Amino acid sequence: MAYKISNKDGVLTFTIDREEKRNAVNDEVMEGLKEVITYIKEHENVRFLVVTGAGEKAFCSGGDLSEFHSLHTEEQAFGMLSKMGNILYDLATLRVPTIALINGAAVGGGCEIATACDFRLVASHAKCGFIQGTLAITSGWGGGTYLFERGLRHDRALKMLVDAKVYDAQLLHEIGWAMRVFEGSKEQALEEFIANMRKIHPSVHQAYKEIELRKWKERNIYDRVMEEIRLCAKLWESDAHNEAVQAFLNKSNSK
Ligand SMILES: CC[C@@H](C(=O)O)C(=O)SCCNC(=O)CCNC(=O)[C@H](O)C(C)(C)COP(=O)(O)OP(=O)(O)OC[C@H]1O[C@@H](n2cnc3c(N)ncnc32)[C@H](O)[C@@H]1OP(=O)(O)O
């Protein structure tokens, strides 16, 4: 199984469980995330959604390049990107608080998943970045749109995207992407983070999220996400992207 789901005391945790691939997202992970989101929509007893990765090396390394490199055309790429884009939109618009518990590197689509969550708690050793530019593509799951909505200063958000490099946890905190940087156990960091929120009735959380989502609707977030995905799909079929992915995969094969 490419993921694990646990549901304890109102905290539903989705763990990507592909350590050997640094928790890269494949079709199975997408289906798992979709299942969890549907479950939350249908069950009132879930208070928080936590997304994390197995092990300590990676939260998520983005799309699985060894699986997705078989997608060549713009339309093929759009199919995969929009599937995950819709899942992330559903995650971003859930009525319960969502927390990215970042246990290790979050790069590419991994950084997009984290940005789609309401809160980012980052392990002190973790490095995160929208490194898609190094693959000659943009963010393709809507993460760029969410980043511009997260209240970071505009120049800092844009720099993160155009730098296309990883930032360390301290810098992520300074620019306002990470809400907390933690040392030691991720479970403890999570418990401390939600301790106060647990004391508040869930209907209050839902009301605040409703207020935020109303603003998002006015700003046409869904349309902007789809436009972002369309731009990425165009770049996906370029030679520059194919060569960059081949170089990444050849590195693995030559080990
Ligand atoms: C498709 C959507 C698009 C988007 O919309 O954003 C994307 O997500 S594009 C994908 C962006 N991701 C990448 O470019 C992957 C970058 N990966 C890394 O930078 C590093 O792997 C890491 C995450 C920083 C971890 O580094 P390290 O701990 O040193 O591990 P290795 O690099 O040695 O990797 C171990 C193992 O895992 C394989 N791997 C890693 N990431 C992916 C991936 N995204 N897809 C497929 N496989 C991946 C890597 O090839 C190694 O495999 P083996 O050599 O077979 O052990």
UniProtKB/TrEMBL annotation:
GO terms for MF: isomerase activity; methyl/ethyl malonyl-CoA decarboxylase activity
Coiled coil: none
Keyword match Cytoplasm: yes
Keywords: Cytoplasm, Isomerase, Lyase
Catalytic activity: (S)-methylmalonyl-CoA + H(+) = propanoyl-CoA + CO2; (2S)-ethylmalonyl-CoA + H(+) = butanoyl-CoA + CO2; (2R)-ethylmalonyl-CoA + H(+) = butanoyl-CoA + CO2
Functional description taken from the UniProt entry: Decarboxylates ethylmalonyl-CoA, a potentially toxic metabolite, to form butyryl-CoA, suggesting it might be involved in metabolite proofreading. Acts preferentially on (S)-ethylmalonyl-CoA but also has some activity on the (R)-isomer. Also has methylmalonyl-CoA decarboxylase activity at lower level.
The protein's name in its UniProt record: Ethylmalonyl-CoA decarboxylase
